[in-house]
Each structure stands twice: as C-alpha cells, then as structure tokens.
C-alpha cells in the first residue's frame, strides 16, 4: 500500500514539474485580479488589458508558431484568495503573471508563491513601495510607486494652497502606505495634518468619522484607499456639510468613484494618476472589443502583458528562469502608457504621476 | 477634553439615522422570535432584497420612461419593495419554517442560516458583486439640508428618521389596537391556547413574517438612499440588527426600537470620539456589558418560572 502511494505521489510530481508547460499546449501566461467583490470593475479592466495583448499576439501567429493562452485567476481582492489563486496559476504552468491589483495581495503572493516557483509577476496596479524593495528578482511593475505618488500629491496640495489636512486611510497595505507617504511629505513641506485615522473598508456609514473631520475645519481631506469607500466618503461629507475637497490616489481613479459619490458630490475631488490620452488608438481598440472605456489600469495591464510576451519571444529558452531574466532586461519598451524601462528592482525610474480633478462629472488632467 | 455640544449633537443625530435603520430590521427579528422563538437569520437577506427591489423599481420606472415626481416615485418604490418583501417573508416561512415547526429548534436555526446563504448567492448571481447606488435624482434630492443651531440636518436624515418613526408608531398601533395585533400577542403568549380560542396560528405567523419583512424592506430603501448597496449588505446589517434586538430584549417590540437606536448612537460616538477603527469593538463591548448585567436585554422581561 505504502509503495503504491509513493508511486502515486511520484507520478503526480512528475506530471506537474517534469513536463515543460509550453511543449504540448502552447505558451501560458496568467492574469490575476479581483473579478468579483467591490473592486470587480478594476479587476475586469486588468483582465481585459491582458486579454487584448494576448489576442493581438495570437492574431499575428503567436510566439514562435505557438498559440498563447491566458489563464484567468480571480483573487477577489482578498489576500487569502490571492495566495490560492497564485498557487493555481503556478500549477497550470504559466511562465509569468500579470497582476495583482491590491498591494496587500501582490506583496505576499510574489514572495510566497511566485518567487519560489520562479514565476515572473508584473503588476499593473500595485503601488506600495515595499513590493520591489525586497530583492525579489521576479517582481516588476508597469505602474509607479506610492513614495512618488504620495509626494506628488503632497506637493500639489501645498502648491494649490491647502495648508491644513485630515488624512484617512482604509488600513490596508496600499491605502495606509499611501496615506503615510502623503502625511510625511505634506508635513515636510509645511502643511499641517490635524488628524490621521483609519476606516473599516466595506462599512457604509462614515458620517461619525466625517463629523469629527468637519470639526477640525481642514482645507483638504486626503484618503488613502479605493473608490468603493472613497465614493461614499465624499458623498457623506457633502451631506454633513463638510466642504473641503477629497484628495486620493490611483485607487480612486475610476468612473465608479464619481458614480458612487454622485456627480454633484464628486465635483472638485482631486486624484493622482499618470497622465494619459483618453482618446488614443488604444482606447478605441479597447472600446471596440469590450464595449467600455478602458479603466485606470487597462493600459498598464496591456503593457505588462506585452512586456511579458515580448520577453517570452526573446528569451533564449521558453522556461520560467529565462523569461524572468529577459523581463529584467526590458529597456525603452514602447507601450501604450509610455516607454518602459525596468531598473534592478523592477521599478520604472522616472515614472510620473499627474494630478486630475473631477470637473463636469469626469476626470480632467490638471498638471502633468 | 473639551466637549463641543454641537458636535455631540451631530454625532447623536448620525447615530440615530443609522440606528433607525437597525431598528426597522431588528423589529422583524424580535417579532418572529416573540412568536416562534426562532432567530430568523435569513431576515438580513430580506432587508438586502428589499433594498434591491426598491432600486429595481426606480430603475424600472426610468427604463419605461415613466417620470413621476420624486416623492411619488419613492412612494411607488416603497410600496413595491415592502409588498415584495412581505411576500418573500411569507414564502420563506411557508417553505422553509412551517414544515419544521415541530422539529428540534436547532433544525430551524440551521435552515435559517442555509436559507440566508441561498438568498445571498442568488442575488449575487442575479445582480453581480459590485456596489450600486440609487439613481442620482433621488440621492441628490436629499443631499442638502438645513442648520438647527450648531447641528446640520440633511433632508436624507430627516426623511430616514421621520419615516422610521411613522412606521414604528404604525406598528405599535397595529400590535396594541387591532384584532390582528391582539391575535399576534395571544399567539406569542401561548400558541396552543390561542388556537383553542379560535385564532388561526398559521395565518397569524404568516402575517408576522409579512410585517417584519416589509419593515426590513423599508429600512433597505432608506439604506440604499443613503449609502451604496451590494449583495452582502444583509450580512452586516442583519448582524447589527440582531444585536440591537438582543440589546433591547429579544421578543420585545419597543426593545428592538430602543436597541437599534442605542446601537447606532454608541457606534457613532465610538467612531466620532475614539477612532473609526474601534467602532465595532466599542459597540460589541457595550453589548457584552449589558448582557452581563441584564441577560434578558434592556426591556426584556424576566421569564417567570412555570409552576
């Protein structure tokens, strides 16, 4: 009996490790994002971006005559689910993964799952600095970092004359991280932070915290977090007569933020996000395929997939280690979001965030 | 710490607003418990479905190009959602609880939990997982407000509190002054004897479910007009309302109202004066304290020993 079990385990191990994934069934890459849950909209944006890149390469005959297939994973915006999905993707034999959205998922998944399996992870959306500060060779991002974003936000706020701020965050790696950076830079620049507090993401009633904020009479309320909470925050702020504008990071950059808040309440909100051309060729192709405007991270996800596919095509061997090394060599890659060059950490030096304001019910670029 | 009375008043108002929604849901828990000694865990989902029915009605009116004045459209939404939820509540009772009425209490409790999961997932498959808001025409009509001294009252808060009050008074009148109310009280006291006196207990129980569910649906629309909704809101709101019912003394109708309002105020003061992150810890801590000193809740009666 024991021998039989051993044999069984050995066979299973052989089938999962021994077979080069690309030999029989083409090239596989993964995309992992929250496809259900409160952030499902941004998750779908990321999936579509990667899907578009894969469709385009297959239309041109794939990579070295092999078709590329995209394995889709739903991390539900939950770190535990994220680890499970990452493991599943690794087991299906992907060479690399585009994802995840949340820094709180990208950070553990890259270290605990992708790194031991030598799987390249390129995130289009996770901005927490820690992600690329751990010496992991398999981690890259096509988006910028929050130490940059938080500084740009603080600089703009001070320049625009907001001298007194209240800082709120959603207690997760992304939100609190961004709020910390903003606070540090804002105070260094001479701004005053009167209150720094967390909210429970998923809660619906924020009026008690906002009433406390209102009593401080701030010029500005900075929120580190995502649109589903940010939209409610700004809507409820208006209801209790708190007039200071809400400012936030890339997690708020979605039309759903304006929809959840209501156009009237969202007006004047300030969001940092890289500048991009809303009416470019990519936006047209994307809209033709998916029937919706590209979301915040669609372009970054498309570029992440393109960088990954390009590296797979150029790598001397189509295995995980060669692909990882090849992605690390990405220099001046022309993407739809800009020219991508990875440094030794997997970041893009010189990545720029812009400042957008909600005007007339839509995001308008204020400064580049 | 210097205490600003204006802010204190504002926080109490904030608490009463969400608290009145808790209270509307808590009434359904407490009424069903009063009659069947059953904790109807599917009740939170009835609240959630009521909220979606209201949203669906408003969107349906919009899609059919029926443009009613805002108050009239809201009235239609309340009627449709409350009637729909009442039918749903009666259906739940008929299909899931009545066949098990003579089974051990645990079987009913498990059925209730299972039903809650079924309803939640059904709605998830039907409408998806994203947050939705009520149409802007309605939420923005209520966004402004007026100042009463140092307190800013939004029309939305006024509407929520006013409607909740009307519904609670209506329920009290129904229970205390009508034949149906008398039958409900009699059945709660002793179903067998009530039956012998000619009260059709099945019908009374069905009406109890219908009334509780309609109140939850009204709470659901008020919730939707104020916040955003998704398939999962029934879980948290249901849990809070259940706590409110226990706090006030489960089975006791004024207790559920008091418990809901009190829980809302305690939460608001916790989030307003301590920290948004400690809100739930404070609310649950107070619940534990109350139950240590008054195990049957604030207004709950001590059950007399049967001789």
TrEMBL record, chain A:
Q: Which SUPFAM superfamilies match?
A: Periplasmic binding protein-like I
Q: Cite the InterPro entries for this sequence.
A: Leu-bd, Leu_Ile_Val-bd, Peripla_BP_I
Q: Which family does it belong to?
A: Belongs to the leucine-binding protein family.
Where does the secretion signal sit in this chain? Answer: 1-23
Q: Which Pfam families match?
A: Peripla_BP_6
Q: Which GO terms describe its biological process?
A: amino acid transport
Recorded superkingdom: Bacteria
The entry's keywords: Amino-acid transport, Signal, Transport
Species of the source: Candidatus Tanganyikabacteria bacterium
| Chain ranges of the Leucine-binding protein domain | 27-361
The UniProt entry, under CDD domains, shows:
PBP1_ABC_LIVBP-like
| UniProt-recorded name of the protein | Branched-chain amino acid ABC transporter substrate-binding protein
């Amino acid at each position: 009996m024991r021998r039989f079990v051993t044999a069984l385990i050995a066979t299973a191990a052989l089938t999962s490790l021994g077979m080069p994934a690309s030999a029989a069934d083409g090239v596989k890459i993964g995309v992992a994002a929250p496809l259900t849950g409160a952030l499902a909209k941004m998750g779908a944006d990321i999936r579509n971006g990667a899907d578009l890149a894969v469709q385009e390469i297959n239309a041109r005959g794939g990579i070295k005559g092999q078709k590329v297939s995209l394995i889709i994973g739903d991390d539900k915006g939950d770190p535990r689910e994220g680890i499970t999905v990452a493991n599943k993707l690794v087991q299906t034999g992907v060479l690399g993964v585009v994802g995840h959205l949340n820094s709180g998922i990208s950070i553990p998944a890259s270290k605990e799952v992708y790194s031991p399996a030598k799987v390249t992870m390129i995130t289009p959306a996770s901005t927490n600095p820690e992600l690329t500060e751990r010496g992991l060779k398999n981690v890259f991002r096509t988006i910028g970092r929050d130490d940059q974003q938080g500084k740009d936000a603080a600089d703009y706020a001070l320049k625009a004359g907001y001298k007194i701020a209240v800082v709120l965050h959603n207690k997760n790696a992304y939100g609190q991280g961004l709020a910390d950076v903003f606070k540090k830079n804002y105070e260094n620049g001479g701004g005053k932070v009167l209150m720094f507090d967390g909210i429970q993401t998923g809660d619906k009633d924020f009026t008690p915290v906002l009433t406390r904020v209102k009593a401080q009479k701030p010029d500005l309320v900075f929120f580190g977090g995502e649109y589903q909470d940010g939209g409610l925050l700004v809507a409820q702020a208006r209801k209790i007569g708190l007039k200071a504008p809400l400012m936030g990071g890339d997690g708020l950059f979605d039309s759903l933020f304006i929809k959840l808040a209501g156009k009237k309440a969202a007006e004047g909100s300030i969001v940092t996000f890289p500048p991009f051309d809303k009416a470019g060729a990519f936006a047209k192709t994307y809209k033709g395929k998916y029937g919706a405007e590209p979301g915040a991270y669609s372009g970054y996800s498309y570029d992440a997939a393109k960088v990954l596919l390009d590296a797979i095509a150029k790598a001397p061997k189509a295995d995980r280690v060669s692909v990882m090394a090849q992605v690390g060599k990405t220099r001046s890659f022309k993407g739809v979001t800009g020219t991508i060059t990875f440094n030794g950490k997997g970041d893009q030096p010189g990545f720029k965030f812009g400042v957008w304001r909600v005007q007339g019910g839509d995001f308008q670029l204020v400064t580049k | 710490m210097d205490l600003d009375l204006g802010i204190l008043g504002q926080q109490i108002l904030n608490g009463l607003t969400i608290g009145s929604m808790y209270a509307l849901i808590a009434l359904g828990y407490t009424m069903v418990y009063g009659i069947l000694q059953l904790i109807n865990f599917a009740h939170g989902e009835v609240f959630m479905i009521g909220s979606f029915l209201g949203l669906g009605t408003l969107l349906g009116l919009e899609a059919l190009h029926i443009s009613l004045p805002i108050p009239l459209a809201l009235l239609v939404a309340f009627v449709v959602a409350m009637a729909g939820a009442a039918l749903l509540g009666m259906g739940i009772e008929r299909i899931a609880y009545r066949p098990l009425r003579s089974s051990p209490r645990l079987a009913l409790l498990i059925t209730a939990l299972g039903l809650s999961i079924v309803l939640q997932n059904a709605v998830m498959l039907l409408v998806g997982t994203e947050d939705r808001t009520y149409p802007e025409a309605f939420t923005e009509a209520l966004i402004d407000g007026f100042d009463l001294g140092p307190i800013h009252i939004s029309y939305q808060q006024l509407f929520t509190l006013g409607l909740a009050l009307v519904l609670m008074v209506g329920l009290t009148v129904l229970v205390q002054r009508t034949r149906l109310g008398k039958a409900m009280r009699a059945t709660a006291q002793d179903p067998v004897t009530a039956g012998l006196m000619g009260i059709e207990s099945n019908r009374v129980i069905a009406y109890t479910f219908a009334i509780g569910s309609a109140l939850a649906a009204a709470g659901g629309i008020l919730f939707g007009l104020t916040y955003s909704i998704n398939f999962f809101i029934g879980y948290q709101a249901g849990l809070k309302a259940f706590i409110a019912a226990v706090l006030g003394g489960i089975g006791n109708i004024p207790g559920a109202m008091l418990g809901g309002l009190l829980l809302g105020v305690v939460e608001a003061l916790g989030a307003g004066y301590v920290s948004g992150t400690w809100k739930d810890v404070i609310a649950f801590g107070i619940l534990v304290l109350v139950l240590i000193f008054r195990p049957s809740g604030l207004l709950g009666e001590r059950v007399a020993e049967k001789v």
